Known about the structure:
Elements: E1 3-8, H1 16-19, E2 22-25, E3 43-45, H2 59-65, E4 71-75, E5 78-81
The chain binds zinc ion.
Amino acid sequence: MPIYEFIAKHHRKSCPTCRDGFERLLRHTDPVPAVCPDCGAPIRKCISAPNVGASASGFDDRAKATGFHKLKKIGQGEYEKQY
Ligand SMILES: [Zn+2]
């Protein structure tokens, strides 16, 4: 039996059960619940995404790769390219 994770659709309309998500065992014949069993708020099936946030870690590398340069002013009208 697959375990499904559910979480409240609207954070402001939720209870401690559905606010942070809860797991349910569902048979294939079971209807997928649309509301929280505790408070009746609308819920949605959670799609697990373990790599969320991983793309942000490469930001500096991407900034350099896209050609950003840093210039330091060293005198009247003179600039030293730092990278
Ligand atoms: Zn709830």
